[in-house]
Amino acid sequence: MFPPRTTASASMAAAATVVKITSRGGSRVITPAFAPSSASSLLLSLLYMVLPDDVNQLRMLSVCLMALSMALHYLGYEFARSATVALFTASPVPPSPGGSTPSLPGFGKSSAAIGAAMAAVCPTAAILLAWYGRVLDFYGPRGALRVTGTSCAAALALGGAAVHAMAGTTKFLTLRPRATRAFLFALFVFRESYVQLLGTQHWSFMGSVLKPEEGRKFFAPIAGASSVAAAVGGTFTRGLVGGVGLGGLLVCAAVTGGGSVLAADAAYRLAEHGGFDPREEKAKSKGCKEHTQKGAWGSATSLLFKRVPVLGALYRETLACQSLSSVLNVMFFRRLTESVPNDGERAGWTGKFYASINVVSCVLQFGILPAVMKYVDPAMMWRAMPTVMMTFATAMCVSKDPSLHLVGASFLVMKSLEYSIRGVVNEMVYVPLDFESRYLGKEVIGVFAYRLGKSGTSLLLSGLATTVGGGDLGLRDLGIVTAAATASWTVTAYRLANLVSSVRPEEGAEEKDRRK
């Protein structure tokens, strides 16, 4: 880590390395303080000699560090997801006392257990949000990311250690299967809940540091780098499990999470010394927005959405988008199960399908979007995405028996849009906004609205199946629900686009200049 910033003074000139950072508005002298007797502090201060002199280069370096942090986060998340899914869906029968390699008794293929776990994600996300709001208010954005990131990594490490310990204690597994399942349930729910909590904080920093025109250029490849990291994690998961087991895989997730925290902390340290620390903006705006932050995070969010209407529009758009994605997910797996009854063939089909989504998303993120976003207004992108999906929804709605290729193509296009185009224009919404919008509002939308859209849709489909479908919804019924969800997304996306287009990019750039 870099030493904390202090003011340049004659008394410290002999005990510190002075770094001069130049910009269009002039130059600044930054003097990192350190104790002369500390060898480690001396080594840290020497790092300033290799830092770029231009503040813009320093800013880009901090973005690169945060992008690295986010890539490590999603790399570790892939490890955690593979481990928790394998543990959750393990055989519900406790291992025999004479087994040579005991395993934890999970829930098997119980759809009720999966539904209960997904339903528990939403309140868990709300609890994490309330915790994050308090930490952010007390420690600021850098401290919030450090505390939440370290806590999540510690939870994964403890979970991995517990898995390893319980798997090696056959007597415990035989006598306490319910306690084991409760632990696996909690671990699964936590893994589903924490990923967005940390990922949105990474984006909040980059949205604070980059200007609108820079966001158009860099957001797509930054998202692509995280996608590649996640793909790498999925690729190496099988080899890691063979060597360290599922408990060790969770520990690997904790280690990469720790590396993510270190890279993020270094990015914030550069921001502090470069004069573009988001916390400084919070201090400047605290007086005029103090009324918004009073009370619980729920009431604070309500006041924030009233003050910044685009956040409320994005919240509703997120709910509608995730609702459509959830309906298509159910429809796809229903059609896949009917068309490919063999488990092995279905697993291979599913693997190729998601590989295709990753390939399409990477092509968009690295090859197309960086060039297109230079010339295309983000508001046009918001309007185009649901328009494209309306074409597929209409085709499925009028078809009496939608084919696997039609349903699969619809789901593939939806997920590709969600991972690439929507991911980029979603981050661009926050760039010209204030600190509270980017750090509190973004977390509420990215964590709570995202999960609420999925959980709420699952409950809605269950209710429709019970009251209308006689216990089950057919593909034709799901096609009608898909059309309704697409219409809802179209309305909310168009309203959001109208608000986004009212903020010109040059206004966002002027706001960023004022922050600095």
TrEMBL record:
Organism: Corethron hystrix
Alphabetized GO MF terms: ATP binding; ATP:ADP antiporter activity
Localization: Membrane
InterPro entries, per the entry: ADP_ATP_car_bac_type, MFS_trans_sf
Transmembrane stretches, start-end: 33-51, 58-77, 112-132, 144-167
Presence of keyword Nucleotide-binding: yes
UniProt record similarity statement: Belongs to the ADP/ATP translocase tlc family.
UniProt entry tagged with the keyword Translocase: no
Bilayer topology annotation: Multi-pass membrane protein
Keywords, in A-Z order: ATP-binding, Membrane, Nucleotide-binding, Transmembrane, Transmembrane helix, Transport
Gene Ontology cellular-component annotations: membrane
Protein name: ADP,ATP carrier protein
